[in-house]
Write a structure and sequence with these properties.
The complex is a heterodimer of chains A (224) and B (413). Chain A is built from seven helices and no strands. Chain A is mostly helical. Chain A has a domain of 80 residues. In chain A, helix 1 runs antiparallel to helix 2. With 413 residues, chain B is of the alpha/beta class. Chain B folds into three domains: 105 residues, Immunoglobulin-like, CATH 2.60.40.10; 69 residues, no CATH class; 175 residues, Rossmann fold (3-Layer(aba) Sandwich), CATH 3.40.50. Helices cover 44% and strands 19% of the residues of chain B. Chain B contains eleven helices and 13 strands. In chain B, the strands form three sheets. Chain B has a six-stranded parallel beta sheet, with helices on both faces. In chain B, strands 4-3-6-7 form a four-stranded antiparallel beta sheet, with no helix packed on it. In chain B, strands 1-2-5 form a three-stranded antiparallel beta sheet, with no helix packed on it. In chain B, strand 9, helix 5 and strand 10 form a beta-alpha-beta unit. The longest helix of chain B is centred in the C-terminal third of the chain and has 31 residues. Classes of the chains: A mainly alpha (224), B alpha/beta (413).
Chain lengths: 224, 413
């Protein structure tokens, strides 16, 4: 019963939403369903918050490895919760908008959260460099092709690429490095991407059908 | 020290260039030109209104013949303004402007909202009247009125016929292959290295006495990639329980966490070891993308998991996670349906499930006839799509007609 009821709900709601794609009068069913999802998600946020406090409080009480990070997490969670919930420092008081300029919540978001987010994002540049270094080692034919293609694109996106090959006559302009880079991006790269996307679309349909027909049950643990 | 100075100088030059750019932008003269009212253009003619086809009953199509001054005559038309009201005798102030189109356009679809409280509400089964003005430089033409028209809802979207045919073909193929599988006919499915490596990776973790990290991505429980990941998670949890090793599942969404907890718990129960399940092994981190990455990277570096499995919806965090996994020396298996993230996983992970392989993973792991039947149907449909694409392309090259997009652009009857 524990597995049958969720499967029944999934099949019924899923089938209705698929049907609503073909019936314009029923198009709002999709919006309604996402509204119900949001309502359920609100309750799940309580579960999430509760789980976060429990997991980290246990780490702190047991003094397990890295417990100091849990203290930071709990402090951050508590401070943001209190400043957001009670709208501390909000010029319009408790009735004001949570993102009102000048409120402590907004200040913390602007001067702590955003810079930290940007810092994490900026790390990506260094990670791309290290990943590229590993990927571009010409170990075999495929890696060599990748290296050559990447080299052409890198060169084609810089002024050096233009300088090196602008002597090539107009009738052979496709051989100029910037044009070669554009061709690689627009022909082989795009073709490969589209092939993967077609596969993904079919995979999504197949997966949805498996779920709707109740063939796929492993997410409920009942696959045998 | 010299690197710090170099970094500082780079930052300084970037800041200066930004400041210079901002100054240049602010010193640009305002691109405003005073509109000198000219003679009004001639109005559009033959204005017609009709119900918008294939909609939910809250849309009207307005069409008109172009003003004689649109691209000809005095060429003074810039755009057309479309107004709507319930009563044609209303004064001008009660006519509501619903849209503007540029010169040369002779139709407008007035798509309203279905909620009466909404500002753009368009009532169903009610007489509606429309006005169209040709607008010149600071002036507008005389009015051209049309109506009444009533918006009605349709029971089938005729634009969706190709999709319906596609779905039906897929359904038929699926049922056929499922029946074949039920009869015991062996269905060959090509091996997926990434999936075959999962058992090996779990075994490695057991030998090393280290945990397995399973990341479901940053998608919600409604994302199909996350659902596909749940199906694999259930099977991985069961294997983990059988091998008596441990797993860590940090989640980016509370709903995902709740489902993941249930999935892992059931996996342990199916393996006959419900007591080995630790509730803290599946936990919520945060819904923010980069704080989630920071937390998971911290876990990777502290716990040094033997195996990292990243399956689900991933964005910019894909490389941040995978590169940290490389630093920690973990075996990494990844899979996502985000095409732009696949290259990052390919370079940083040992095995990558490309797009559709993520959805096939569960069926491949289970090896059940029913699941394999759907995989076979998917493969056949892919072949049909390829044949159709090549045939339509050839037809287009031979005839020159737009046979590729036309079936999807117009109603089928």
């Amino acid at each position: 019963m524990k597995r049958q009821i969720p499967m029944l709900i999934l099949s019924a709601v899923g089938t209705l939403l698929v049907v609503s794609v073909f019936i314009p009068s029923a198009r709002h069913w999709q919006e309604d369903a996402s509204l119900y999802f949001d309502i359920i998600a609100v309750f799940a946020f309580f579960l999430g918050g509760g789980n976060l406090i429990r997991v980290h409080a246990e780490k702190v009480s047991r003094k397990s490895a890295g417990w100091i990070y849990s203290v930071v997490t709990l402090l951050g969670f508590g401070i943001m919760l209190v400043t957001g919930l009670f709208k501390i420092g909000n010029p319009n008081g408790i009735a004001g908008d949570i993102s009102q300029a000048g409120s402590y919540f907004q200040l913390l978001f602007q001067y702590v959260m955003s810079p930290l987010n940007s810092t994490m994002y900026a790390l990506l540049a260094f990670y791309v460099a290290s990943a590229s270094y590993r990927a571009f080692r010409a170990k075999n034919t495929e890696a060599t092709i990748l290296l050559v293609a990447a080299f052409v694109i890198l060169l084609g996106r810089t002024a050096l690429g233009v300088l090196l090959t602008n002597w090539i006559p107009a009738q052979f302009s496709v051989l100029q490095v910037p044009n070669l880079a554009i061709w690689i991006m627009n022909a082989p790269n795009l073709a490969g991407q589209r092939a993967i996307m077609i596969g993904i679309s079919l995979g999504v349909i197949s997966m949805s059908l498996r779920l709707l027909l109740g063939i796929e049950r492993s997410y409920l643990g009942g696959d045998n | 020290m010299k690197y710090i100075i170099l970094l500082f100088l780079t930052c300084l030059s970037l800041c200066l260039s930004q400041a210079l750019l901002a100054q240049t932008a602010s010193s640009d003269p305002p691109a405003e030109a005073a509109l000198v009212p000219s003679e009004p253009p001639a109005p559009p003619s033959n204005v017609r209104v009709s119900d918008l086809a294939n909609d939910d009953g809250h849309g009207i199509r307005v069409t008109w013949d172009l003003s004689p001054d649109d691209g000809a005559g005095r060429s003074s038309v810039i755009s057309y303004d479309i107004y709507r009201t319930l009563n044609p005798n209303d004064p001008d102030s009660l006519w509501k402007k619903v849209g503007t189109v540029v010169l040369g356009v002779r139709t407008y679809a007035d798509r309203g909202e279905r909620e009466p409280g909404s500002g753009s509400y368009l009532p169903k089964h009610t007489n509606l009247y429309y006005r169209v003005y040709a607008v010149g430089a600071g002036v507008r033409s005389a009015v051209a009125t049309a109506g009444p028209a009533q918006a009605t809802d349709d029971w089938f979207n005729t634009m969706k016929v190709p999709e319906l045919i596609f779905c039906l073909v897929f359904l038929v193929l699926t049922v056929r292959f499922i029946n074949m599988a039920k009869k015991g006919i062996d269905l060959y499915v090509r091996p997926l290295a990434g999936i075959e490596a999962i058992d090996e990776a779990i075994g490695r973790a057991t030998e090393m006495g280290k945990p397995i990290l399973y990341v479901l991505g940053i998608g919600t429980a409604g994302d199909i990639a996350t659902i596909a990941s749940f199906t694999v998670l259930g099977r991985v949890a069961r294997k983990v329980a059988e091998y008596q090793t441990s797993m860590i599942v940090p989640c980016c969404d509370p709903v995902v966490m709740t489902i993941a907890q249930e999935t892992v718990k059931t996996g342990y129960a199916d393996a006959g070891r419900p007591d080995a399940y630790k509730e803290d092994s599946v936990y919520y981190v945060t819904s923010q993308q980069f704080p989630f990455v920071a937390a998971v990277n911290g876990t990777i570096l502290r716990e040094k998991p033997a195996t990292n499995i990243y399956l689900g919806y991933f964005a910019a965090e894909s490389l941040l996670l995978a590169e940290t996994g490389v630093l920690a020396g973990s075996i990494q298996i990844a899979g996502t349906d985000q095409v732009s993230q696949l290259p990052f996983f390919v370079v940083a992970c040992d095995y990558t499930l490309l797009g559709e392989e993520l959805y096939a993973a569960s069926a491949y792991l289970g090896r059940e006839p029913l699941l394999l039947g759907t995989l076979k149907a998917q493969d056949y449909l892919k072949a049909i799509v390829l044949v159709c694409m090549v045939a339509l392309l050839a037809l287009r090259m031979i005839t020159g007609a737009d046979v590729i997009s036309k079936p999807f652009d117009a109603p089928w009857w």
